[in-house]
Amino acid sequence: MLTRKQHELLVYINDRIAESGVSPSFDEMKDALNLRSKSGIHRLITGLEERGFLRRLPHRARALEVVRMPETAAVGTSPGTPARNNKFLPSVIDGGRTGLPAGRQVEAANDTAALPLYGRIAAGTPIEALRDTSHTVEVPPSMLGRGEHYALEVDGDSMVEAGIMDGDTVVIQRCDKADNGTIVVALVDEAEVTLKRLRQRGNSIALEPANTKYKTRIFHPDQVRIQGRLIGLIRQF
């Protein structure tokens, strides 16, 4: 679910790229959304990137790419409208099966797609993910890329500064590799599963929380197995 400002910014960026082939500047985005500073734009872009709607292209100035548009319309778009400049489709490298059970190869339905809901994942202190596959969660097909997906319920508050709250349901795309800065499901020492931001530093892997109350944990690469990356979030009020 996007906030109104996130949706307005996403529509604005998508329209500008469709018109000119270039993403707008931060000043232009700030003025378009009537914000006082560019820091608000940075936060909105980060939130859209975390939720899989927007992608920053490395080593290029003003390089933003709209990956997809939201299923539900708010301002300036129709439900299910695809990104008009969509050149990027997420790829999946299917990895080992230890830890979380295999996800489902999803075929988009007309309205919703059912994903297996594996249980609660710690976003504070890691816990072993539950393996009960009898429950499912319905998600918009537009939220999903290619490959296998599954859902987990967040337990804890260590990712609140990334907009991930206790009780949220996160949608995960299965993979065994991820870029630096990606929020991933990580299996630690073949026993604990946690949701954290991945940082690879030399011959070590850091699992970084998004809450100053928690410390970053450092591991040897042999201790960590990536189980998937965050592509979406579902919240009930």
Give the secondary structure arrangement, pairings included.
Elements: H1 4-20, H2 26-32, H3 38-50, E1 54-56, E2 64-66, E3 104-105, E4 113-122, E5 136-139, E6 148-155, E7 169-173, E8 183-188, E9 192-201, E10 204-208, E11 217-219, E12 224-234
Parallel strand pairs: 4-6
Antiparallel strand pairs: 1-2, 3-6, 4-5, 6-7, 7-12, 8-9, 8-12, 9-10, 10-11
Helix pairs in contact: 1-3, 2-3
Walk me through what this model shows.
- By secondary structure, the protein is an alpha+beta fold.
- The protein has helices at residues 4-20, 26-32, 38-50; strands at residues 54-56, 64-66, 104-105, 113-122, 136-139, 148-155, 169-173, 183-188, 192-201, 204-208, 217-219, 224-234.
- The strands form two sheets. Strands 3, 4, 5, 6, 7, 8, 9, 10, 11 and 12 form a ten-stranded mixed sheet that branches. A two-stranded antiparallel sheet has the order 1-2.
- Helix 1 (4-20) packs across helix 3 and helix 2 crosses helix 3 (38-50).
- The longest helix is centred in the N-terminal third of the chain and has 17 residues, at 4-20.
- The chain is globular and about 50 Å long.
- The model is unreliable at 72-98, 104-110 and 125-130 (pLDDT under 50).
